[in-house]
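Input:
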Amino acid sequence: DTEVTQTPKHLVMGMTNKKSLKCEQHMGHRAMYWYKQKAKKPPELMFVYSYEKLSINESVPSRFSPECPNSSLLNLHLHALQPEDSALYLCASRQTESTEAFFGQGTRLTVV
Amino acid sequence: AQKITQTQPGMFVQEKEAVTLDCTYDTSDQSYGLFWYKQPSSGEMIFLIYQGSYDEQNATEGRYSLNFQKARKSANLVISASQLGDSAMYFCAMSSYSSASKIIFGSGTRLSIRP
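Output:
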């Protein structure tokens, strides 16, 4: 099983809303990632969690707040987003630094 | 710093033909991994193939093979007997062990298969 599950698949939110994206994997992977992808562009790294600790934050604005409650779950809390934050948000996981990474289907976020 | 370069923004290929998607990379690390992903219009990022820098043999997965030329720092994806369902965006990606698990992507190649 190489499944990474992301919910919701689609999300529309206002600029004053608070919402959360969820990512789950049951492969025992120890590294989990959040990426942001704009149309016709490659994914851009936002955060990396390694062994449930935040190891990389690519200078992401504080309106994006990641959380890793346990080794299987990764959340991305959203607050006071801007329309330019509209994008596809992808979650990924991998066993170690020397193995392949698997992605979820993504959440298409629209900020209105 | 690591960098991935894909020089083919778009390609058209006849169905059943083989196709090679180019990828070159730049890193000063000795230990790294190279990935190829397929992204259909639905948006999901589908893992295709992985090559570790110390792997002596080129990776293969079904119709996909990775032509790894370490000295040239290239990791081209070869798709044999292309199918209509292969039409998608293809990304080459890299992760080096000194970069603390970062996975960086090239700009992608949009592959279109003609019937």
